[in-house]
Design goal:
mainly alpha, 2 domains
Length: 163
């Protein structure tokens, strides 16, 4: 009987080891499967990251090209405007120089009395109206105005000399 018990014990021990070994093998195979799936996920994520990185890089390059075109167009427009402004300034400088020349001529003419061709105005004796006594006739007012017009309006000969 002791042989039987010893045989049974060994068998039991081997059975337990087989169970332990098979459990360990199951755990190892499960872990290996998980590691493989994790590696697959990591590879997929790396591919996605590379895709996103490529798209981002291409997008940045296209934006950079568009920005270069935009800046060059604006520089051309501003350069054209700069040339137009320079031309206007040059024209205005020429006009100012011309006007300064004319001004010096006019100053010299006034200083020399060159524009004093117009005859001096004679002293005019303006009739004084009679003292007002409350009423006036239209005839008196008309005569007064006619007298002022005679002295203030230049005669035809005086008008010609002004021109």
């Amino acid at each position: 009987m002791s042989k039987e018990v010893a045989g049974n014990v060994e068998r039991m021990e081997t059975r337990g080891r087989d169970r332990k070994a098979s459990c360990s093998r199951d755990i190892l195979s499960t872990l290996e499967d998980r590691v493989v799936t994790l590696e697959n996920f990591v590879r997929d994520i790396k591919e996605r990251i590379d895709d996103v990185d490529d798209r981002l890089h291409e997008g940045l390059q296209s934006m950079q090209e568009q920005l270069k075109v935009y800046v060059s167009n604006n520089v051309e427009q501003l350069t054209g405007r700069d040339y137009a402004i320079e031309a206007m300034v040059a024209a205005l400088k020429g006009e100012i120089a011309k006007l300064k020349g004319e001004l010096t001529i006019y100053k010299a003419a006034l200083g020399n009395g060159g524009l004093a061709v117009v005859a001096a105005k004679p002293n005019i004796d303006v009739p004084k109206p009679k003292k007002f006594k409350g009423t006036r006739s239209a005839r008196d007012v008309d005569n007064f105005l006619w007298g002022i017009e005679q002295y203030s309006v230049p005669k035809a000969s005086q008008r010609m000399s002004l021109r």
